[in-house]
Amino acid sequence: MRIVVTGAAGRLGSKLMTLLRGQGHQVTGVDVVGEGVQTLDITDFAATRAAIGDINPNVVIHPAAWTDVDGCAREPEKAIAINGFGTQHVAVAAAHIGAAVVYVSSNEVFDGTLNRPYREYDTTNPINPYGYSKWVGERALAQVNPKHYIVRTSWLFAHGGKNFIQAVLNLAKQGKPLRVVTDEVANPTYNDDLAEAITRLIVTERYGTYHLVNEGSCSRWAFARYFLDKVGLVDTPVEKIIVAQWPRPSIPPTYCGLANLAGKQVGIQLRPWQQAVDAFLEAEGFLA
After folding, report:
1. Contact (Cβ atoms closer than 8 angstroms) between residue 163 and residue 222
2. What does the CA dihedral 160, 79, 252, 31 come to, rounded to 10 degrees?
3. Domain 2-162+188-215+257-271, what architecture?
4. Does the active-site annotation cover 130?
5. What is d(CA 5, CA 61) in angstroms, rounded to the nearest whole number?
6. How confident is the model at residue 288 (pLDDT cuts 50, 70, 90)?
7. Mean residue pLDDT across the chain
8. Do the Cβ atoms of 244 and 188 come closer than 8 Å?
9. CA pair distance 40, 43, nearest whole angstrom
10. Active-site residue (options: 118, 130, 149, 190)
């Protein structure tokens, strides 16, 4: 297949590029910056339509986004311009040539008030600007292009980037105090596992909404405690706090685990998050 990957210089985009090329697909990466990619700003509709039209892909995989959650809270209109209308631009351009779109969305389109993991077709109700901007992207894609896959994920951790695991381990090794919330719950998800799942999804032509996360959910505190213990920092204390004790511009949904029901229907299921964390830590050289 001919495939375009937006945000190709990012962690998910670059992993997708590697996997897809290894599978024999003809892949073009686009991004606002980065080496080995075609320059494209998805907030520019004319440029987006021209670029996608010229490449004429069968599928556009669209992980490009502004993922700074607190930044989105400070500049909500910018968040909508990139995550919402940028996605609409991609959707229109793809629809014009009959291409499918995979949109990488977020668990933060939900409000976090259920007492169970969210299923694919539960009612969305974002409570912060980042979640709202991703919801706008979902709605725009679904309204414009029937050949769509909406892929929601959560708490991504990737090699070579800044993420929760690396941040906590760095603080622990510096001997700095750790305070982590117990009432924010979601699915820790390994970037590489998500990328592999997306490459499997695009060949199904089973369009719709999917929750592609590593199996199982936990609190931020339990997540931190798990990987600290795995790397031998068992005696490192981690103070339990609640979201209200950690003031920030964006308010996260508290209980926002995702259930993968649709993916299982097409044979796509990611391994438990603990196994994914183990694989990440081993690849990073954190395990003896």
Report:
1. no
2. -20
3. 3-Layer(aba) Sandwich (3.40)
4. yes
5. 5
6. low
7. 96
8. no
9. 9
10. 130
